[in-house]
Amino acid sequence: MFEDNQSCLHMLDSEKYSNRTKHIDTRYHFTKDLQQTGIVKFIYCPTEKMLADLLTKPVPRVRIEALRQLCGLVR
Known about the structure:
Layout: E1 2-3, H1 6-13, H2 26-36, E2 43-44, H3 53-56, H4 61-71
Parallel strand pairs: 1-2
């Protein structure tokens, strides 16, 4: 799974909890378990190459064109 949030990736790799992360709920622990068992692998992907943004965020036309090219959806 590609992720552009480096803080999120660091939390998944870290075994420590802090006052800032104690609010994290069971979805985080479920995700961490999936990673530790090897079911899911998280990989850093820079925001400018995050293909999911094309369908999940409002993006300007120039960005849409760039993401379409990366997806191979070019006319």
